[in-house]
Structures are given as C-alpha cells and as structure tokens.
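Margin note: ligand = flavin-adenine dinucleotide.
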Amino acid sequence: MASAIVVGAGIIGLTTAWRLVERGWDVAVFDPAPVSGASHVAAGMLAPASEVVWGQPSLYPLMVESARRYPELIDRLYAGRPQEVGYLPSETLVVAADHADRTALDERTSLQTSLGLKAHRITSLDARRLEPGLGPAVVGGVHLPDDHQIDPRALCAVLLDRLGDRVVRQEVTGFVERGGVTRGVVLAGGEAHHADQTVVCTGLGLLPGLEALPLRPVFGDILRLVPTTGTPPLLGRTVRGLVRGRSVYLVPRADGGLVLGATVREDDDPLPSTEGVHRLLDDARRIVPGVLDTRILEVSARARPGTPDDVPIVGRLDPGRVISTGYFRHGILLAPLGSDITADLVESREIDDELLAALDPHRFDRPHSTPGAP
Ligand SMILES: Cc1cc2nc3c(=O)[nH]c(=O)nc-3n(C[C@H](O)[C@H](O)[C@H](O)COP(=O)(O)OP(=O)(O)OC[C@H]3O[C@@H](n4cnc5c(N)ncnc54)[C@H](O)[C@@H]3O)c2cc1C
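Resulting structure:
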C-alpha cells in the first residue's frame, strides 16, 4: 500500500488526508494542534457568488466548481445526515444600508450575473419578507440562491473522527530528503517518519525550505453570538451587509447561534481588535438590530493565508512532495476541489494544464507574470 504523510490538520489537510484514505493510501497526519488555525474560526460561508470580486478571473471558476462538489463530499463523509456536519443549503441575502451602498451592490451584482452566477436584485420590502429581522435602514438587497454554509468546526470534528489515530499530535520541523527527493518528515523530537509522498497543508506555517513562498497573514476578527433564552432565531439565512462601504456578515447556525464577521487587517496582531469588534457590532446592528439582544459566546481572531493573487498555491515541489496552501478567505469553500486536486497530484493523475498553471507554486517567480494568468 502506498503511504502519504499530510503535514497540517486544518480543513485542507484533513479533507486531503480523507480523500487519500478513500483512495486506498496509508495516511499519517501530523499537527501539534489540529484545527487550531484559520479553520477553527472560519464562518463557513460557501459563497461563490457573494465572494466574487473584480480582477480574479482564475479564482471564481474554482469557487463555483468547489461549491458544486460540496454535497458529494458531505455525502461521502456523512451519507444522508448533512445537518451533522453543519451543512445548510440556506441561501444568502446581501443588503445595502444606504443608497451609496445600494449603488456599490448593484455594480457587484452586474459582475456576478455577467459571470453566469445567480444574483437577483430585490427591493427592501422583499428583503424584509425573506428576513423579517432586517432593520429599517436597509434600502434593498440581492438574493443569492446558490450561496450556502457549513459549520467548519462540525465538519473538521467529523473528519478528525473518521481519520482516528492516523492524526498524530506532533509538530513537523523538517523533511527527510534523498537526492533532492522528499522521503518523509522530521518531527520536533528529532524522529524521522518516512512515506512515499509528503503533502504540506500547513496554512501559514512555513517549514524549512518553504520560507520564500509569498504567503502573508491577513487577520480577521470574528464573533460567535447566542440568542437570549426563549427568543426565536434572528435569521433564517446568511445575511451579508454593505454598511458605508464596509462588509459585514451574519451566519445563522442550526442551533440558533450566529457567527458575526469579519474584519480584514494586516497588522500582524493575533489578538482580536477592540475597534474591529466594535465596528462589526455597530455595522451588524444597522442591518439586523436584534443582534444587540444576543449574548457574546466567543470573540476570536486568526490569520487567513493570503497570496499575492488571492489564488491558492497547489502543486508538486519534488517527486516526493506536494504543497496545498494559500487558500486565503475561501479555504472552507475550496476544500472539496482543493483536496481532490491535491490527491490527484499525489497520485500523479492527469490534471488540466490551465488549472495547474493558475495554482502553480512557482507562478510568482516568473518575470512579468499577470495575477491568475497561466
Ligand atoms: C475570520 C475568518 C473567517 C473566514 N471565513 C471563511 C468562510 O466563511 N468561508 C471560507 O471558505 N473560508 C473562510 N475563511 C478562510 C479559511 O478559514 C481558510 O482559508 C482555511 O481555514 C485555510 O485552511 P488550512 O487548512 O489551509 O489552514 P489552517 O486552518 O490554518 O490549518 C493549518 C494547520 O497546520 C498546522 N501546522 C502549521 N505548522 C505546522 C507544522 N510545522 N507541523 C504540523 N502542523 C503544522 C496548524 O497547527 C494548523 O492546524 C475565514 C478565515 C478567517 C480568519
């Protein structure tokens, strides 16, 4: 049986490891603190339409394709019980807090529809019919029927359970190499562990020899809210808002809780920002006033693994080593596709050339390369 080591047990490492196990590989996953990085705090929006922005032509097809693969991943993992991994095909509503925000929202909607994504402009009245919890400030919105959500913590817990004792709580500090080919990893205690293939899924954790990868931490503050006892759920679907040009979102969980996020900051500070949390709460209460009646269960911050073109870094580094990182703000959404491509690389299966070029770890080394261009 062929063997693989997966370094890193975030959503990408876990889905990749699971994919390889399904394909008959003998897999060991090393991580001193599984699911402690970005995957631990992510809201879990599966939002190919609402995350589309200008100038990222190679990213949105990946988001659309990965969203399409989600139900199949959930089925393979938890046949017939999608709610147990927190998968909710509950749609998304994006609302504008004033007329300038409405104009900005309309421009984004034109982009979404021009790319063939489903985005329906609706009035404030229709928005309130869909979500009675919206406040009086809301001037209209866009209904995105294909943007759903999953609870990343629930999904990762199921993956950890499925992988069982294949997940080893140890840090990797280096690679075993012979003749320029990776043959395994070195653990923090100095012990070597060998395998036919090594897959690096460490998010922002840069291992020796990989320091030159152009990854940067993009921090996000995020809150978990719970309703006060006896109150009905505030929202039935994800509500995203544009509030004086700033983005905010509220993701309702099946248990009545809400995830409120998220700031975007590149100040290298791992602690939640007081100003950021204040701004999130202030913007959220403008679109959903009832948010002030909830209780704060958790405030957290983690860094998204950003790349210069916002597209992940996935590719083969040598005949024994593959890398899969840089999923920035879309790692939960991109996990089904990212893990499939990574497993295909491990098995040296044929992969579309254009796709490989878009994800190529060396694409930033090339002179005059255009972001996202092959
Ligand atoms: C606030 C916030 C909200 C987000 N919301 C969404 C969302 O709604 N939808 C979405 O699609 N994405 C979202 N994201 C992005 C998403 O969380 C990330 O893209 C994704 O979690 C990256 O997964 P990963 O497995 O690559 O990295 P991580 O989850 O960071 O996991 C990396 C793992 O590698 C381990 N590791 C590091 N170094 C070593 C080492 N030397 N040895 C062994 N193990 C090591 C770490 O312990 C960690 O467990 C959000 C991110 C943030 C911060």
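The two ends are 35 Å apart (CA to CA).
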